Amino acid sequence: MSPRNAISLREEKNAPLGAFLGSDGAGVDRIAPFEKWLGSTVTVGHTYLPGERWPAIEGGNGFLDPWARWRTADRNRMFVLNVPMITPNEDGLNDEVVSSLLRGGAAGAFDRHFAALAANLVKAGLNDTIIVPGWEMNGATYNSRCRPNPEAWKLYWRRIVTLMRAVPGARFRFDYTANRGRDAVAWPDCYPGDDVVDIIGLDSYDQPAGADFATFISEPNGLQAQADFAKEHGKPISFPEWGLFRNGDNPAFIQGMHDWIVTHDVVYQTITDYCPHGVWRCSGNPDSSSLYRRLFSGVVIPPAPPVTQTPAPSPETPTTPPPASTAPSPGAPNPGMPNPGTPGPAAPGPGAPAPASSGPPAAGPVSPSPAPAGPSSPPPAEPPAPAPSPSPSPAPQPASPAPSPGAGAGSPSPGPAEQKTPLAPGSGTPPPGARVLARATRL
């Protein structure tokens, strides 16, 4: 069954369009060339806070500045920010440690970092940011995951949202985003409540190998389940990450995602644009690139007046919600940088087993690939991820300023880890280099 026959097309809607093009200022610099290549206006800027230490969660050290300049220059634009709930977010902490940190978060151990983040966002004019805390919580890729302690995870999410909404001037929306499919746990089991969720998101990649788009619609906790759950709870949906993966250059997946997006109430959608997932900076997907360009081009939105700067409140911690009565305090979490005993194994690379823990194994895309050079004068590349996994041979990267068309998560099958958040400025890490992705391999 073709993707078009798999769904019933209704009146098409142009969901705000974006692409993940880099975490720091490099991502901002690539937006205009991507727009020119596509022939449509990019109105969604999307990035990830560094996740290796707690001060980075506050969004300081100038990390937000280029995104703030881009967002506030045009009222039509929106900014989406993925925020880790635990640091380090990608170092493979074991379930016992994660559970302890979740209990600590639910009891208020890390309040000041999220209060500072909210104040910094408001001060930068980003008070209407869409915030995605603890994304892909149903998997085992990140330490901000739900499986070790679902009840504490939900209480912690509620605390973060309540705290950030309390900052004067804040108009944030909160996006509850899981991996498509069951993954390590069923994502509805982690849902923290309608009063603290504004959007129901899914990260949707073309996997497992051999699956067609109809499968992605009908699978347990798949696209149809997302649409039904969102309708039941009175929420719109989003696709913060989507792209190619296990089935190579697959135009049918591009067609299917397009048709699904334009026939549903989608707040925004951002394709992951680096190899093997992307269509602009990855030369290995020419057919998908051509179709993406045809399907998503031609939506030109005239610039709107700049956003009026909201007076910033003092960055002092606002009134915080009371500690969750049902969440026990951890032994002694250190809000500066947790060091809870012996950590679990480092995130495994492709072909390696997932970190040992109770419950079903992890699911999510894995494909280490250095970020290609930028389309024009190349901006600085993101710093390297903390523990890059060995990479399979990546798709060839464009050498010229105009990138060649080019190439991932979601679906219930086991596998090991992804690294998307950049290292924090001033963290004492090696000089900036190629960004590495290492996601959970699916069978």
Secondary-structure element order, as H and E?
Answer: HEHHEHEHHEHEEHHEHEH
Strand order of the largest sheet: 1-8-7-6-5-4-3-2
Distance between the termini: 23 Å
Rg, nearest Å: 20 Å
State which percent range the strand residues make up.
5-15%
From the spread of the alpha carbons, the general shape counts as globular
Structural class category: alpha/beta
Give the low-confidence spans: 1-10, 313-320, 322-419, 421-443
Task: Kindly state the percentage of residues in helix.
Answer: 10-25%
Helical stretch count?
Answer: 11
Give the beta-strand count: 8
Average residue-wise pLDDT: 77
Summed up:
The chain has 443 residues and is of the alpha/beta class. Helix content is 24%, strand content 11%. It has an eight-stranded parallel beta sheet with strand order 1-8-7-6-5-4-3-2.
Kindly describe this structure.
With 443 residues, the protein is an alpha/beta fold. It has an eight-stranded parallel β-sheet. α5 packs parallel to α7. The radius of gyration is 20 Å and the shape is globular. The chain starts with a helix and ends in a 147-residue tail after the last helix.
